[in-house]
Amino acid sequence: MAGKQRTGGIAATLLSALTVAGTLHQASPCHWGDPLIAEESGLRQFMLKRYAWMEVRLLAFLYWLLRRPFMSNSWINRLFYYSMAKFAGEHMVASQVMTLEEMLEFIADMPEDGKIAVGPCRCRLATHACDHPLETDIVIMTGTEIWLDLFPKDYRVIAREEAASIVRECYELALVPMLDRHMYFRGSANYFVICNCCKCSCLPIWAYRTYKRAGYRYIPSVYRSIVDSGKCEGCATCVEICAFEERRLSGNKAQVLDCQGCGLCVKFCPNQANTMVAR
How far apart are CA 6 and CA 27, in angstroms? Predict the structure, then answer.
């Protein structure tokens, strides 16, 4: 009981802080300044370390929250979006969906002297919602030392080749490659983790599905998919595979809604009816 109270207290405190930050962000055009958002900022790295320390508990709370029936109420949905989810998803931890090829290129271009580590997916630890592989959380750049320092038994250092191999294996399981940035403003990099996300456990994907009508968005992807209606046989494989629920059948043909750019529909379509094009 005491543990639940502590978790609830941490979640409530962070929720309050995000509410204030989100309100200030909406009310002011200020971008918080480079001392906070710069890659080398000690303050930013301190904030990232605090986030890492409470990450699993925070994700567990958000998973519980997003699955509450009251979240289907449009008024409550928009209240939580503008007070918390908008700032958190657009700036605090901002995600970008990538195709497999993009993510492999990103890994190949990472500095050779940069340390990479892999550990258990924080969302799956928090939700226990699926049996997808657990060791898929690839921390990079400023994230590596922070997660290794806090969780030395959970994370291990790997080479770029193994990181690429993990991403490939996850893609075969229809997991979405996502690149996350911390304190994202004005195009700042601040990359800290490569995630391999599923529609059952991933909190950014849950948040997208919950708040997309209110305007929740990721960092825009480079590519989006299109359908060749002549090849499409209406099998609905792409509808099932789309973690973002941005596919539907219309007239027995697949229709693309707001594609987020992972390319899994291209990989798994049995009729090669999907193609990725520049957004």
Answer: 32
- Whether pTM > 0.90 for this model: the answer is no
Q: Following DSSP, what letter does each residue of 230-266 receive, concatenated?
A: TT-----HHHHH-TT--EEEETTEEEE-S--S--HHH
Quote the CA–CA distance of 142 and 151 in Å, as a whole number: 15
pLDDT confidence of residue 260: 96
43/47 Cα distance (integer angstroms): 6
Q: Residue 245 — left, alpha, or beta (φ > 0 → left; ψ -120 to 50 → alpha)?
A: left
What DSSP character marks residue 213? Answer: G
Give the Cα separation of 276 and 279 in Å (integer).
Answer: 9
Each domain of the chain, given as residue ranges in start order, spans: 2-214, 223-278
| Cβ-contact 111, 190 below 8 angstroms | no
18 φ, ψ to 5°? -70, -35
Query: Which has the higher per-residue pLDDT, 222 or 38?
Result: 222
Q: State the residue for tokens 């090829």.
A: 101
In the sheet with 176-182, reading across from the earlier edge strand, the strands are: 93-97, 176-182, 191-197, 135-139, 116-120, 156-158
Q: How far apart are CA 26 and CA 12, in angstroms?
A: 21
Pairwise CA distance, residues 195 & 128, whole Å: 17
Provide the terminal-to-terminal Cα distance of the chain, rounded to the nearest Å: 49
CATH architecture type of domain 223-278: 2-Layer Sandwich (3.30)
φ, ψ at 73 (rounded to 5°): -70, 125
Supply 148's token pair.
């290794």
Report pLDDT digits (tens) over 233-276.
999 999 999 999 999 999 899 999 999 999 999 999 999 999 99
